């Protein structure tokens, strides 16, 4: 498990370098996002047993991830769906050897909504027990969260990461709207 988490940390680091480069963020802001020191990361194993009537069940209700980025291994079985504005729910096919990368709320805020958080859910199926592995990454809960200083008109107020996470816990989908500038 440690080896897997170390590989995920390296992948997150490289992904964030590529994602944040076009935003032209300061070195201090880059360090805030990619620093392994004082960051929070969680490895979550998900189990979705087969269901005799999958149209009447959901594996995991619709949500956005709270931290910066999530790397998801679907382990070869479909079940992830994303919500596409104007089109509704769309299946994300499982591709052998590939990961799904979800933008979370903190990157949504930091990028001033240039990289929107992805609303998604996990569905069950009738024939196969599905396993997925999610790796969540974000800055320290004690660090300050705000849109990058590169944005002239920030869409969101500045607050501590832990304050945002508390809002998300209490208000779920309304959390982002509560910190609009």
Q: What keyword list fits this structure?
A:
26% strand, four-stranded antiparallel β-sheet, 5 helices, 181 residues, alpha+beta, 27% helix
Structure write-up:
By secondary structure, the protein is an alpha+beta fold. Helices cover 27% and strands 26% of the residues. The protein has five helices and ten strands; from the N terminus they run H-H-E-E-E-E-E-E-H-E-E-E-E-H-H. The strands form three sheets. Strands 1-8-3-6 form a four-stranded antiparallel beta sheet. It is globular, with a radius of gyration of 17 Å. The termini are far apart. 27% of the residues are buried.
Q: Please state the overall shape, judged from the principal axes of the Cα atoms.
A: globular
Please mark out the parts with pLDDT under 50 across 5 or more consecutive residues, or reply none: none
Sequence of strands across the biggest β-sheet? 1-8-3-6
The biggest beta sheet reads:
4 strands, antiparallel
By DSSP (H or I, 4+ residues per run), the number of helices equals 5
The level of helicity is: 25-40%
